[in-house]
Amino acid sequence: MKRIYIAGPMTGKPDLNFPLFHREAARLRAEGLDVVNPAEINADLTAGWLPCMRADIKQLVDCDAILMLPGWEWSRGASLEHHIAQRLEMRVIYLNATAPNEGIPA
Q1: CA dihedral sign, ordered 62, 88, 19, 33
Q2: What pTM, to 2 d.p., does this model score?
Q3: Can you spell out the DSSP letters for the chain?
């Protein structure tokens, strides 16, 4: 796995859930991974959903894997990112889940 995208809920979360996105990005980078963090792509907290998703999806399609943060299944954007990743046959990793492919290899 060379490049991983982080997906999760933002809308309605305190600070748009950026602290969790940044924490996971730092952890993954410490493991030597190239990380795409939507909280870095869309640092403007006033930007609308649609422009943010367009920018995020452009980055997602160049990744090898996607890390799904807790609560992603209730997020319109993260659900869309999950769908795209599955259709593009990316590795899907679920943080704090019981999915069979959970965990990131060393």
Answers
A1: negative
A2: 0.87
A3: --EEEEE---TTSGGGGHHHHHHHHHHHHHTT-EEE-HHHHT--TT--HHHHHHHHHHHHTT-SEEEEPTTGGG-HHHHHHHHHHHHTT-EEEETTS--TT-S---
- Contacts of residue 86, Cβ cutoff 8 Å, sequence gap at least 6: 92
Residues 7 and 20 sit within 8 Å (Cβ to Cβ):
no
Closest CA to 38 of 12, 65, 16: 16
> So what's the pLDDT on residue 105?
42
- pLDDT tens readout for residues 28-72: 999 999 999 999 998 777 888 999 999 999 999 999 999 999 999
